[in-house]
Amino acid sequence: MKFKFLSIALLFLPLTFNAMANVDNHHRIQDINKMDDKVYLTTFSPLFNDDEWVLVESGKQRPFSGFVDMFEHIINIIKVSDKQTQLSLIADHPDLACPAARTEGIAAASQEEQKSSGLNSCTQEEAVKLTQLNKQYREKFGFPFLLAVKGYDKAAIFAEIEDRLNNDQATEFNIAMQQYYKVVMLRMLDLVK
């Protein structure tokens, strides 16, 4: 049911966001359908953190009729993969962290998303708290806390991770996958007209 709602919402998102965004970096679906495989992979690599296989498979499913069709093809590739493959996708996602607490480099797309939520201006106490929450979450569920942070501020992110620590494994895995899909959708909005 949630996926159907997401699909309906997606019909209007490209129009809304593209009207507000600088569309010079956006690619028209007609051009995406004509891209050679290497250009397609390079263009859409920001959608994923080193998980090129999804793009390889989605590239084979072109032509797409529009944004929603492209998104649904990409997400369906992930949805039909086995649980271990899905776990590896979310496991590759970086922890949400304040810059002082980052232990690894993160992709430009992740940096921008985290910056927009205010995580780049954490106090020392906030950095320590978020590191502890990430550790608790990872120990409980076996994968990093995943949240499409666009529209969230620091307080909402902290509240979300604290709330989700109360979930059981199956519930949290499903939420993490939905958040993963949302991250992909939001990143696509930056790339597709």
Notes on the structure:
The two termini are 26 Å apart. This protein has ten helices and no strands. It is mostly helical. It has helices spanning 2-20, 29-34, 37-44, 52-60, 67-79, 83-91, 108-116, 124-141, 154-164, 169-189. Helix 3 (37-44) crosses helix 4 (52-60), helix 4 crosses helix 5 and helix 8 (124-141) runs parallel beside helix 9. It has two domains: 2-89 and 184-189, no CATH class; 95-179, Oxo-4-hydroxy-4-carboxy-5-ureidoimidazoline decarboxylase (UraD-like). The model is unreliable at 14-23 (pLDDT under 50).
- Tell me the β content: under 5%
Q: For the terminal residues, how far apart are their CA atoms?
A: 26 Å
Low-confidence stretches: 14-23
Number of domains: 2
Helical proportion? 55-70%
Biggest β-sheet description: none
User: How many separate helices?
Assistant: 10
**Sequence of secondary-structure elements:** HHHHHHHHHH
Over the alpha carbons, how many angstroms does the gyration radius reach?
Answer: 17 Å
Q: Shape from CA axes?
A: globular
Summing up helix and strand content along with how strands pair, one would put the structural category as mainly alpha
Give the rounded overall mean pLDDT: 85
Total strand segments: 0
Pathway: Purine metabolism; urate degradation; (S)-allantoin from urate: step 3/3
EC number: 4.1.1.97
GO biological process, one term: allantoin metabolic process
Signal peptide: 1-21
